[in-house]
Amino acid sequence: MTCCDRRDVGLLLLRLGTGGVLAAHGAQKLFGWFGGGGVEGTGQFMESVGYAPGRQSALAAGLAEAGGGTLLALGLATPAAGAAAAGAMAGAAALHAPNGFFAAEGGYEYAASLGLTAAGLAVSGPGRLSLDHASYHVLDRGWMVPLALGVTAAVTAAVVGARAQRVRRKREGEQEALFEE
Q: How is residue 4 annotated by DSSP?
């Protein structure tokens, strides 16, 4: 038996690429790296689009992306890492959904691709070229996959649902103000 096969190399490439992109996006939110707004700037943006409180939303998204992305790249705690990243991307996709599918038009295509890849890695596992494999899968047990994805789905649904209500109330308030003028 060899130490790895093409499936392991493919999973490594998926983990490194997806994890690296997610970690960079999280670093933008947390530290202002790569042209990002940092926690303060991202928090103001998050508040403006209905994710409140903005600073805490920026921290949560940044940690899910940077932490989840880094752990995915390393292949460590893969179920939790993939679920956290997928949840963050579901929140991003909800923000972009009104613009349609394609990213060129501001749509959710990119966020959905990253989120689905992260979720797929959570389900498939990291492969043998990973810290999970080196640590005998202590943080990558079969029961952890549905638990991580289920908890993340519930939290994400609550956060995205609360945002949708805030956006709807704001829109209704703006329409009422127009009628009063």
A: -
Report yes or no: 19 and 72 within 8 Å, Cβ to Cβ: yes
Say if 15 falls within a structural domain.
yes
One-letter amino acid of 130: S
Q: What is the model's pTM?
A: 0.93
47's tokens: 């508040």
Three-state SS sequence of 90-108: HHHHHHHHHHCCCHHHCCC
- Whether residue 119 is contained in a domain is answered as yes
Per-residue pLDDT of the chain (181 residues), as tens digits, is 467 899 999 999 999 999 999 999 999 999 999 999 999 999 999 999 999 999 999 999 999 999 999 999 999 999 999 999 999 999 999 999 999 999 999 999 999 999 999 999 999 999 999 999 999 999 999 999 999 999 999 999 999 999 999 999 998 888 777 777 6
How big, in percent rounded to 5, are the helix, strand and coil portions of the chain? 80, 0, 20
Question: How far, in Å, are 52, 96, 107 from residue 148 at the CA level?
Answer: 24, 25, 27
The parent domain of residue 47 ranges over: 6-180
Report how far residue 55's alpha carbon sits from residue 102's, in angstroms, rounded to the nearest whole number. Answer: 28
In a domain, 1, yes or no: no
Number of domains the chain is built from: 1
Whether 169 is in a domain gets the answer yes
